[in-house]
Amino acid sequence: MADDVHVVYKVNGAGARKGGATAALSRLFTRGPAPGMREVHAVKGVTFVAYKGEAIGLIGTNGSGKSTLLSAIAGLQPVARGRIYSHGQPSLLGVNAALMNDLTGERNVVLGGLAMGMSKQQIRERYQSIVDFSGINEKGDFISLPMRTYSSGMGARLRFSIAAAKDHDVLMIDEALATGDAAFQRRSQARIEELREQAGTVFLVSHGIGTVRETCDRAIWLEAGVLRMDGPADEVCDAYERFTSGR
Ligand SMILES: Nc1ncnc2c1ncn2[C@@H]1O[C@H](COP(=O)(O)OP(=O)(O)OP(=O)(O)O)[C@@H](O)[C@H]1O
Questions:
Q1: Within-domain flag for 90
Q2: Which of ligand 1's atoms lies nearest the C-alpha of 205?
Q3: How many helices (H) and strands (E) does the chain have?
Q4: What are the distances in angstroms from CA 127 to CA 50, 55, 101, 134, 237?
Q5: Ligand 1 touching residue 11 (CB < 6 A)
Q6: Where is the ABC transporter domain (predicted)?
Q7: 3-state class (DSSP) for residue 38
Q8: Quick one: which atom of ligand 1 is closest to the CA of 64?
């Protein structure tokens, strides 16, 4: 659950607005940001409770704070105010999830698995199914090549497959579904369904309202860092569509 969560990015070298000595002095006393330091208040007081078995879509226009909110829930981004409570460790499965480009797909499966807290034994058991699920080897033996030789879609598929191999308490997916071809998207949707049935909670950030309608039962709409609507996926998506078409 998120309780009044605020996330503020501190950006260095953003160019000070007032560089005068008096301004610097008054900043010293008011403990304001240093010169050249600018703050971006990306998430502003978001509160919600997510239950087991729910699949929640996060929607909102570009820069509304969706990815930031997920990073904060995953513990990758500190919160400036408010709190996040969670049963189990939430894992963020993003297109940017850290895999090593110079290592082969095989090594990345092992490293990624370890990073998610799987044991070596579990990785050995699931290795083949991860590779099969990713479909990386459908067009030749790519899994033994370095990841930098993969197309962006292939990389994203492998990331999704590694993360989806583990049963997560809270799984967060950032636009992972948007990549990959239709067959892979069907497989990943089916896997998300399974993860939900195993009583985990799934968060999905997507620009594709269609994916949210299909995979999620609830949606949270963020706009300019503020929670604008939270409710059944269809209702929230309808309202969001009315909002975006009027812009
Ligand atoms: N590392 C960062 N440093 C400073 N500001 C950032 C950083 N990352 C994001 N922001 C700012 O935070 C705000 C929210 O960004 P965020 O990426 O969370 O939005 P989003 O809803 O996921 O956007 P998109 O739909 O484009 O992916 C934006 O104003 C963005 O400029």
A1: yes
A2: 22
A3: 8, 9
A4: 31, 26, 19, 11, 37
A5: yes
A6: 23-244
A7: strand
A8: 21
Q: How far is the CA of 68 from the centre of ligand 1 (A)?
A: 6
Q: How many domains does the chain have?
A: 1
Chain position carrying tokens 């997916």: 173
Our measurement of the distance from residue 224's CA atom to the centroid of its chain's CA atoms, rounded to an integer in Å, reads 17
222 is a domain residue? yes
CATH number of the CATH domain containing 160: 3.40.50.300
Ligand 1 centre to CA of 62 (Å) is 8
| 154 assigned to some structural domain | yes
In a domain? residue 92: yes
Predicted complex ipTM exceeds 0.95: no
For atom 12 of ligand 1, the residue with the nearest CA is: 42
Quick one: tokens of 111? 């490293």
Measured in Å, residue 20 CA sits from the centre of ligand 1 at 30
Task: Give the pLDDT confidence of 22-69 residue by residue, as tens digits.
Answer: 766 666 666 655 667 788 888 988 999 988 888 899 999 988 999 889
Measured from the CB, is residue 42 less than 6 Å from ligand 1? Answer: yes
Instruction: Identify the domain containing residue 152 by its residue range.
Output: 49-245
| pLDDT above 70 (res 97) | no
Q: Ligand 1: which residue has its CA nearest to atom 1?
A: 9
